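We treat protein structure as text, and this decision shapes the records that our systems exchange. Because each token names a local backbone shape, the row as a whole describes the fold. For reference, a complete record is included directly beneath this paragraph.
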Amino acid sequence: MGTSTGDQQGYALFVAAEPPVRHPLAVAGMLPQLAAIPPARLVGTAYASAVQVANPDEPQTVLTHLRTAAAAPGPLLVYVAGHLAVDSRQHRLHLALARTTARTVRYTALPWHWLTAELQHRPPGTTTVVADLVAEPDVLQSLTSQEQALTGPYALYGAVQVHDRRHRPSPAYTHALAQILRTAPARPSADELHHQAARTAVLEEAPTLWLGGAAAPVPVQQPTVAVPAPRPEPAPAAKSDPHRAITEACQAGRHGEAASIAASWEQRSLRQYGASSPEVAHWIEVRAVIALEEGAPHRACGLWLRGAAVRLSADQDEHHPDVVAAVDRAHYAWRLVRDPSQARQLGIELLSLRVQVTGSSGAREDVQRRLANLPRAVQP
């Protein structure tokens, strides 16, 4: 995910491990998807080579590959996927490997600080780490509170999803990355690629920590629309980074302020790009996220439905990942609406969209079933 650097030779290292836990993150199966993409496109250089390390069972094996990668003279991409764990003695972050159990973290897992140490001597701006990870709730909380950190001498992108008895996440972020790199006419920049993947990935409705570049990660709750700001001149509020300003306002409970920032950017996008544009749809969807976090699922559902309609009118067809994501998120919010009249009105609109954007198997039937039951009760 590094930026293009002319004729430089790039290098990519992929490390994916599935420890012996219940319902491990199925990351090893994602490596063939990444391998099908030319290494140069993965790294963002004219030429590149790639090495895959699937389900390693010894940290020293991974360390050897890390040292080789760190010595590469050109841009470097390190992809790390699997389960994060913390050892019980030193309380340090590790990547669980193929033999790692809760009791053997210190001996069988890869310490994250090894990765940081091996990459710290590389020239600034030449190293990118992409992480698709899961963690137990307490580990995720330590990352959210910044008691623990994955940051280092590299640009860091990716996602950390919660993994427990109720949540069995999939490597949706990796799948989205691979899909974008396979289909995009031109390779996006590092930031654009990450934000497109974050917006496209269909993750569980569960806490997720987004890792977005060199800055400190910002915790958000799924569903989210995490994409870079459009190019219009900044609004008076949140000139430097409206998305960060919106996140901070929401975390402080200032949902009205967050919605106002999003609305001002929506108006600017409307003037610059027109009513039927993905840029306008984006800010509508941001307002949907705010509404859901505020506890107004009926408003969130309506906004996501509107965002999907705008995208369809902007020549994004029913199979476009942004359209599918908008309808899926509208469906999720609709299931949370308790008022029968609101649920019926929104459900009829959702059903009409489900004719075009069918979603996962049974999605349309789910809408029909709930609509049929509304006269008796609203079942969440």
Notes: The chain has a mean pLDDT of 84. The first helix runs from residue 31 to 35.
